[in-house]
Amino acid sequence: MVKKINHIGVAVNSIEESAPLYRDVYGMKDEGVEVVEEQKVKVAFFAVGESRIELLEPTSDDSPVAKFIAKNGPGVHHIAYEVDDVCAEIARLKAEGVRLIDEVPRCGAHQTQIAFLHPKSSGGVLTEMCQMQH
Ligand code: CMX
Question: Where are the beta strands (DSSP E) in the chain?
Answer without folding.
Answer: 4-11, 29-36, 41-48, 51-58, 75-82, 106-107, 113-117, 127-131
